[in-house]
Amino acid sequence: MAFRDVLNIEVAAGNGGDGSMSFHRAKYMEKGGPDGGHGGKGGSIVLRAIEGVESLERLLGRRKFKGPNGAYGEGRLRQGSDGEDIYIDVPVGTTAFDEESGKVIADLVRVGQTKVIARGGLGGRGNSTFTSSTRQAPRFAELGTPGQKRRVRLELRLIADVGLVGYPNAGKSSLLAALSRANPAIADYPFTTLSPILGVVDRVDTHGSPLDERLTLADIPGIIEGASEGKGLGLEFLRHISRTRVLVYVLDVTRDPVGELAQLQSELRSYDPTLLEQVSLIALNKVELVDEDLAVMVEDELIGSGLPVLQVSAKEGQGLNELRESLFQLLPDRELWAQTHALDIEPDVIREAPLSLEFRIDPAAQGVGIISDGQPERVWKVVGGGFEERIVRFSRYLEEASEYLGNVFKRQGLYSALKRAGAREGDTVEIGPHRFEYFDEDENKG
């Protein structure tokens, strides 16, 4: 299976079911009371992190996910069933971004972790809800709300315990093969590793016998200068580096290890300065190709970076036991690391826009909006405040629900806001596509 670490998908949660407009019917009971049940909620779309999957490739056959709608309410107070949530299984380390806003909406760093990325619509209330002392037989019900829809970009930031950082041909693949049970393809040319390769490293005692401890080691594509700007494999490489608990800078002793370390750290700093705060060490590789004095001299220079330095030879096995043990000793606690390195996620809350009123006069010359006395029509357009969303939920029963909605809008301050703005008796009020005549209760009292 090919490795894939970025995938765009479309998700649409299910709509909420409509509430029922129903009245009880029974033998010998000519006029029963309202008994409409509520609609069920729509199914949400949920990301779920699982282990044993190391690529988003498994999702390639499916780019669109739709949650089932909630069922309609029924008579006899029977509530419609909820739509089942749809789970999308993704690898641990997957981050989800809303394509429109660019915000992080999910960051899954632990096996079993879940996050709703599209919330199902709410079910509407049946007419049994709207009875009152003055409204004993409501002939209206509430409609369900639509489910959330969004385009989502999934990015896999590979979670490995240890990441090997280095330029092409530094010997990372050879080191991975020598330390672990992985079998990467190895050749002597740049960019041999085109996608991350994971290996498992077992801890051993001083006699070489395996202990009951292991870690995952990732050979991540070789970095080049300008990677933080997206050159070469650039951001694909850096995305995975950000999720390893320990970084190993693999440097070729036969080249310019001091200069390469500075360049590597510069690229990491440009992408994310916190990467330089990660627990790190230097593996000075290919020491079998130089004399011992030169290797010691280079090691002394690298120690000036403040990082531990180990001389190793992936080819001949020199220093590998010491490197393996150092990795286990340096490894931070997994749960603590996950808690401190999860990306910040803003609460996915739909904030209601504040109420505003837009006034206009529709002139008689346009031949529209002429009221009975032939004067231009005064129109108040209601924007925000949640009024359009509320009225849409009763669009099928506007005439029957007008009294109820009028009372709701009054309690929520719409009438007083219109009056303060200068609305007059007979003015037109627009809420979405619906138009009403403004009625001033205070002027009509008595």
TrEMBL record:
Residue span(s) of domain OCT: 351-440
Q: Give a yes or no for keyword GTP-binding in this entry.
A: yes
Recite the UniProt keywords alphabetically. Cytoplasm, GTP-binding, Hydrolase, Magnesium, Metal-binding, Nucleotide-binding
Per its UniProt record, what Pfam families does this chain match?
Answer: DUF1967, GTP1_OBG, MMR_HSR1
Q: According to its UniProt record, where is this protein located?
A: Cytoplasm
Q: What is its EC number?
A: 3.6.5.-
Specify which residues bind Mg(2+) according to the UniProt entry for this protein: S173, T193
Question: In what residue span(s) does the OBG-type G domain sit?
Answer: 160-332
Superkingdom is Bacteria
Q: What is its main location?
A: cytoplasm
Q: Where does GTP bind?
A: 166-173, 191-195, 219-222, 285-288, 313-315
Enzyme kind, highest EC tier: hydrolase
Q: Can the keyword Ribosomal protein be found in this entry's annotation?
A: no
Q: Give the function comment from the record.
A: An essential GTPase which binds GTP, GDP and possibly (p)ppGpp with moderate affinity, with high nucleotide exchange rates and a fairly low GTP hydrolysis rate. Plays a role in control of the cell cycle, stress response, ribosome biogenesis and in those bacteria that undergo differentiation, in morphogenesis control.
Q: How does it assemble?
A: Monomer.
NCBIfam families from the UniProt entry: Obg_CgtA, Obg_CgtA_exten, PRK12296.1, PRK12297.1, PRK12299.1
**Per its UniProt record, what PANTHER family does this chain match?**
DEVELOPMENTALLY REGULATED GTP-BINDING PROTEIN-RELATED, MITOCHONDRIAL RIBOSOME-ASSOCIATED GTPASE 2
Protein family = Belongs to the TRAFAC class OBG-HflX-like GTPase superfamily. OBG GTPase family.
Q: Report the protein name in the record.
A: GTPase Obg
State the organism of origin: Deinococcus aquaticus
The organism's lineage is: Bacteria, Thermotogati, Deinococcota, Deinococci, Deinococcales
Query: What is the gene called?
Result: obgE
